[in-house]
Amino acid sequence: MILSYGHRKAPSLPSLGSHFQIPDLFLAPKLPARRARTALAARPLTQMEIGGLDSDGREFRNADEMWREEVGDGDHQKKSQWYSKGINYWEGVEATVDGVLGGYGHVNEADIKASEEFLNTILAERFPDAGRGRHLVALDCGSGIGRVTKNLLIRYFNEVDLLEPVSHFLESARVNLAPENLMVSELHKAANFYCVPLQEFTPDAERYDVIWVQWCIGHLADDDFISFFKRAKVGLKPGGLFVLKENIAKTGFVLDKEDKSITRSDSYFKELFNQCGLCIYKMKDQKGFPDELFAVKMYALTTEMPRQGNKPRPKRTTNRPAIIR
Predict the structure, then answer these.
(1) pTM for this structure?
(2) Which domain does 162 fall in, by range?
(3) What are phi and psi of 45, to 5 degrees?
(4) Averaged over 151-163, what is the pLDDT?
């Protein structure tokens, strides 16, 4: 199973069950013998063209094949069913840290520690005096019961908005983040609670310094992934950025049939970032998780290309003879 909406499930279960093991490399779609050599020589396969599998062990030739089967090709009803099944799954999960982390509540401390180190580095590099003296605002996407907001974001941001489609998780977050249950100054608060799915949300213009997206983007089909980030860009203040923290497949993708989510590879994510018009500012691997779980990676994403240092231009030389005076 794949950790998804609202930091809820553990980063994965061992080998997705005992029925099969994930091969290190998935097979690319087969081409006719005469065409195969020419096509492969022309360009390497992208991660979306590399095969993947689902939690039942079924192999797919590529991501397009999987998405056509799961959400259809322009079939609004089928895509709605995909999202409804995902939310229905989470509606049956208890609103606790262990519940939202799929029985892996013990990874909470390591998760927050690594996220805090990553956030500190970003704030120090992106904002004068690491954002001190500035009114910082964050959006916690897939916020669940407010685990990441309470343990991390609300200590660094004056306001945090929470976005969560599962109502009983959001109601639990309201309680967890009530002023009497927080150990922060009155200058820091949970401001707004939005019970809206990612694929339907559009933020207010230039409200956020950081939009934090953790363990929820796997529920979005590729086209909605791209649409979400393109809309969400509008919500960033000048100089603002996204932080995406997600499970990483070794290659291709792994589909969780139970909660309707997908774990993408690092290369798969990078292809989607490119289509979103996002640039990787910084990335870091999560450490300290049990070996049986998927790898987890953090990405800081900006809407502008990272600045290159001002390197002195090398002197141009020519073969023209010098003038003798």
Answers:
(1) 0.83
(2) 79-302
(3) -70, 140
(4) 98
